[in-house]
Design a protein that fits this description.
The structure is a homodimer of 324-residue chains.
Chain A lengths: L8 E7 L3 E7 L10 E4 L7 H21 L4 E8 L2 E3 L4 E5 L4 E4 L1 H9 L3 E5 H12 L7 E6 L7 E4 L2 E2 L31 H4 L1 H12 L9 H9 L3 H25 L3 E5 L7 H14 L7 E4 L6 H16 L9
Parallel strand pairs in A: 1-4, 4-8, 9-12, 12-13
Antiparallel strand pairs in A: 1-2, 2-3, 5-6, 6-7, 9-10, 10-11
Chain lengths: 324, 324
């Protein structure tokens, strides 16, 4: 572990559907340790039990840091779902079954630290804006493509949250009217074609497989490169759907760049080459944005949570960055 | 005409495809005169000639106001197309054939007044935010439905412009993949179904009419209410397409309200009743926004231009409202 500066560190947590990621973060956003992964095992567990796991994990991590001599100044937490950042409440989480969990208060009571609660995708966008591929850009979209497809709309380094903390749900724009039913209740969302589970499910369906391999989208992508025609078709449809969604995002937000992250965002040229080509073909009057891979990978949420925590400390001295 | 206050007035101009609208605007955004319409007659005329008409009209209006004893402090101009508000340049206008016309400089040279150049839809959004249906709302969409469909994304009273002054092109989100070719070059844009000319064209096509009546969308709407089945079908498809576009806007911007203006925005319950009902059906996890008629009608662009002009005067004393 790097030595924290005299200003100490904050603990950044990224609470995702399968794991909590954590890192100690310096004031400049540098991770003072490799990002650690802690499984959550949400499936089949009561929402309250998962809250308990999060609280336990946060307290353990703070204790461990303090035991190593780190002055932990605050806790920054980024979570999936609908997050009311003002109230510090996890309004809704499909992964955990959460409804109106006052996570900020619960974590502050448990750890005795100042806590800031953010949204995983928006926090990732903040990290990419200040430390990653979005540096120096006034308007960009951060689009993680993993289990689902999300977007943070970044304006001057700050995420646009909308009127009810739900802006940027790019995964649930309808690109195939009347298409497959999405988990959100709509039909034809881009998430029914372009997210990791969607790619796996579509491959299995077209290949006539009941369960069994491939277990993840990366395998489907690999099969596509090896000449598997079904995999190639599924991947092409995923990229086409993602292109349509990005075209919508470009038409409405007019970003200078689209920064693609998440698990499938690490597919390299297999994703970025057709995505750039097809997006350029699809756009007419719009300005073609740069389409770039995210720079921070899995760490974006953690580092962004840490930055939000530092901002919240800064706010107390008037030096923080407000969010819109 | 109402008497201008001791602070004088600004002249607000809204340069549209068929007419220039003008009004003298008080510091509080009140129109000191009824909004006047001056035809442009763009069809078949050279881009430079139309610029000449705009300059002549602006100079005449300033002269007339001064002759009436009004102290004209500045000129606020809202124009259609792509407007670079920082540079004061009309980057592109399909209606006028304009490319990179330095309208702010030309108008300032001609009138000797400070000039601010804005975008017609964004200026209308500013007016609705401060004077109309958007008052007190943090995040709303102003959606004029007229010749085309546009949107101003309003955040805290200010329009979101995007990275290249092209944000909010709601008329050109694709809602019918592979559908009719749009003037913008894409296929299946909402403007191919829901704008005024689209409604008329589709009615004529389905009714087998070559030219001839109906001449405008309002007539088609009226025919629909009178039991004309083709008109009812065309109008239903227009409302459905508009619903799909608004659903996309809600999914990405999460507004608390959608304020619908423009010519077709004056269709009353014939528009708002099905639009609200269908949008509520279409949305699932999103928060249903209020769907409201615009309050300022045709005047929004003019009044917004006037407000921008007052802001620009305020900026010189540090009191203005910055735009994002």
């Amino acid at each position: 572990m790097s030595r924290p500066s005299g200003e100490g560190a904050v603990l950044g947590l990224d609470i995702g559907g399968t794991a909590i990621k954590s890192a100690l973060v310096a004031p400049d956003g540098r991770a003072l340790s490799a990002v650690a992964h802690h499984p959550v095992q949400a499936a089949g567990r009561a929402p309250e039990a998962i809250v308990g796991t999060v609280l336990d994990r946060a307290a353990d991590l703070v204790d461990a840091a303090v035991a190593q001599g780190v002055a932990v100044r605050a806790l920054g937490v980024a979570a999936c779902g609908v997050i009311d950042e003002s109230a510090g409440v996890a309004v809704f989480s499909a992964s955990f079954g959460w409804r109106d969990v006052p996570l900020r208060r619960l974590l502050a009571e448990r750890t005795g630290l100042p806590v800031v609660l953010g949204h995983d995708v928006r926090a990732g966008g903040v990290a990419e804006a200040r430390l990653g591929a979005g540096r120096g850009r006034e308007v960009f979209l951060f689009v993680p493509v993993g289990t689902g497809v999300g977007a943070a709309v970044m304006l001057g380094g700050r995420p646009f949250t909308g009127g009810h903390w739900r802006a940027g749900e790019l995964g649930h724009v309808v690109v195939r009217p009347g298409g497959d039913r999405c988990g959100c209740g709509q039909r034809g969302c881009v998430s029914t074609l372009a997210g990791g589970p969607a790619v796996v499910k579509r491959y299995r369906r077209l290949a006539g497989l009941d369960g069994g391999a491939p277990a993840d989208a990366a395998t489907v992508v690999r099969l596509a490169t090896e000449g598997d025609r079904i995999a190639a078709k599924v991947w092409a449809e995923a990229v086409e759907a993602l292109t349509d969604a990005l075209a919508l995002g470009v038409t409405l937000f007019d970003p200078s760049a689209v920064i693609v992250g998440g698990g499938l965002g690490r597919s390299g040229d297999l994703l970025f080459h057709p995505l750039r080509e097809q997006l350029a073909e699809r756009l007419t009057f719009q300005v073609m944005p740069e389409v770039l891979p995210a720079a921070l990978g899995d760490e974006a949420g953690c580092l962004g949570a840490g930055l939000l925590a530092w901002d919240s400390l800064g706010d107390r001295t008037g030096a923080g960055t407000p969010t819109i």
